[in-house]
C-alpha cells in the first residue's frame, strides 16, 4: 500500500505529465484491464461486449437526468434498504458524479483518508454503516486557501476536499470513470464473505446524458435502472431524454421514482401535491408526460413524500432508511420508509425474475 498522502499528490500534481490513459494515477502493476471505447461512430456501433464489474453480481443504476431532485439521497437510502431486505444482501455504492460527489457526505465519510490499494493496484472501498463505497471525492486533496473562497472569519473551517474542483475534459473523465468501475476491488470492502464480493452495486450517476452515463451504459452489464424525478413537467422534460438514451443503449429500465411527490399534513393527514404532479390525476401535464414515454402505471415503482428528516439525516451522514422511525400509519416518515422498502423489493424481485 502506498504511504498516506503520496497517492493524492501524484494524482493531482500541477505538472502536465498526467496520462490520459491513467488519470487516477494507479500503479503500473494494476492487472485489471479497461475496455476501449471507440471515439467515433454511433453509440451502439463497434463497442466491446458489456462487462461485469469485478466482484459484483448485480448492478443497479440510479439516474435523475435533472439535477437537484434528490438522486444521491435516494441512492444511499436504496443501498441501505436493499441491505436490510430479508435476503441480507451485500450492497455497495459507487459515486460516479465526478464533478459533484455527494455520497461521502450522505454516508458520513467526509474528509476520510484516501483509499488504500490492493497488491495488484486496485482501489479498496471505504465502508460506513456496513456499506462499502467508492467516490472521486476520496481521491481529492484539500483545496488550498487561495483556490477556495477567501474568508476573514477566524472561526471558519479550513478548506476541505469538498472545495476542490475536478477540472478535467471529457477523455480524462471517461478514463477515470472506467478506472473507478473496473479497478475497484469490491471484495476488499466486504466484511462477510469477502471472496464473493457484492450482491448488488448501486451506481449513483451524474445528472444529464453526458459522457459518464453514456460510458456506463456502453461498457457495463447493468441489471436495473431507476430514474428519479420530482412531480413536475420541467423535471420530466429531462427524464424523457434520459429514458431515450437508456433505451438506445439497451439498458434495462425498472421504473420511475417520484421524489417529494406530496406533503402529508400533520393535522389532517391528507396528501397535498405541492408540485401539482398527482400521478392519479390523468389531466395534469406531469401524468400525461409520464404516460407518453411509457413510464406510467406499474412503471412508477415509488412515490416518496416530502419528509424533513430525510434531508437532515443526509446532512449528518446517516441515511434515513437506517435511522428513521414512524409514529403511526399516517406518519410521513413511516410512509417514506415503507415506500423506499417497496422500491428495494421491486428492484430485487425484478432482478431475480430476469435472472431466472
Write up what this structure looks like:
With 356 residues, this protein is an alpha/beta fold. Helix content is 30%, strand content 13%. It is built from ten helices and ten strands. The strands form two sheets. An eight-stranded mixed sheet has the order 3-4-2-5-1-6-7-10, with helices on both faces. It has a two-stranded antiparallel ribbon with strand order 8-9. Strand 3 and strand 4 form a beta hairpin. The relative contact order is 0.17. This is P-loop containing nucleoside triphosphate hydrolase protein.
In short:
By secondary structure, this protein is of the alpha/beta class. Helices cover 30% and strands 13% of the residues.
- How many angstroms separate the termini? 41 Å
The helicity comes to 25-40%
C-alpha-based Rg, rounded: 21 Å
Strand content: 5-15%
Instruction: Supply the number of helical segments.
Output: 10
The profile of the biggest β sheet is: 8 strands, mixed
Number of strands: 10
N-to-C SSE string, H for helix and E for strand: HEHEHEEHEHEHEEEHEHHH
Give the overall average pLDDT. 84
Spans of at least 5 consecutive residues whose pLDDT stays below 50 are: 12-17
Q: Quaternary arrangement of the chains shown?
A: single chain
Helix- and strand-based class? alpha/beta
Strand order of the largest sheet: 3-4-2-5-1-6-7-10
> Globular, elongated, flat, extended or rod-shaped: what is the shape?
globular
Amino acid at each position: 500500500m502506498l504511504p498516506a498522502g503520496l497517492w493524492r499528490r501524484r494524482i493531482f500534481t500541477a505538472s502536465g505529465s498526467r496520462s490520459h490513459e491513467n488519470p487516477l494515477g494507479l500503479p503500473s502493476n494494476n492487472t485489471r484491464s479497461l475496455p476501449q471505447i471507440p471515439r467515433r461512430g454511433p453509440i451502439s456501433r463497434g463497442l466491446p461486449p458489456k462487462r461485469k464489474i469485478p466482484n459484483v453480481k448485480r448492478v443497479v443504476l440510479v439516474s435523475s437526468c435533472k439535477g437537484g431532485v434528490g438522486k444521491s439521497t435516494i441512492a444511499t437510502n436504496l443501498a441501505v434498504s436493499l441491505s436490510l431486505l430479508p435476503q441480507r444482501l451485500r450492497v455497495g455504492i459507487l459515486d460516479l458524479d465526478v464533478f459533484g460527489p455527494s455520497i461521502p457526505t450522505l454516508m458520513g465519510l467526509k474528509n476520510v483518508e484516501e483509499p488504500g490499494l490492493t497488491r495488484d493496484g486496485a482501489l479498496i472501498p471505504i465502508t460506513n454503516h456496513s456499506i462499502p463505497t467508492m467516490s472521486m471525492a476520496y481521491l481529492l486533496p484539500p483545496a488550498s486557501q487561495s483556490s477556495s473562497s477567501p474568508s476573514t472569519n477566524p472561526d471558519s473551517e479550513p478548506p476541505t476536499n469538498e472545495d476542490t474542483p475536478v477540472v478535467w475534459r471529457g477523455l480524462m473523465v471517461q478514463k477515470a470513470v472506467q478506472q473507478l468501475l473496473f479497478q475497484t476491488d469490491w471484495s476488499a470492502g466486504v466484511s462477510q464473505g469477502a471472496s464473493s464480493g457484492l450482491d448488488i452495486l448501486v451506481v449513483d450517476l451524474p445528472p444529464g446524458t453526458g459522457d459518464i452515463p453514456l460510458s456506463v451504459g456502453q461498457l457495463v452489464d447493468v441489471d436495473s435502472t431507476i430514474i428519479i424525478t420530482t412531480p413536475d413537467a420541467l423535471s420530466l422534460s429531462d427524464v424523457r431524454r434520459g429514458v431515450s438514451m437508456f433505451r438506445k443503449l439497451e439498458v434495462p429500465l425498472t421504473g420511475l421514482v417520484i421524489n417529494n411527490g406530496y406533503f402529508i399534513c400533520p393535522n389532517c393527514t391528507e396528501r397535498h401535491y405541492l408540485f401539482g404532479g398527482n400521478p392519479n390525476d390523468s389531466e395534469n401535464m406531469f401524468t400525461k408526460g409520464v404516460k407518453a414515454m411509457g413510464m406510467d402505471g406499474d412503471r412508477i415503482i415509488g412515490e416518496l413524500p416530502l419528509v424533513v428528516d430525510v434531508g437532515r439525516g443526509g446532512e449528518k451522514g446517516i441515511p434515513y432508511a437506517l435511522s428513521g422511525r414512524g409514529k403511526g400509519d399516517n406518519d410521513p416518515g413511516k410512509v417514506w420508509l415503507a415506500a423506499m422498502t417497496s422500491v428495494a423489493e421491486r428492484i430485487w424481485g425484478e432482478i431475480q425474475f430476469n435472472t431466472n
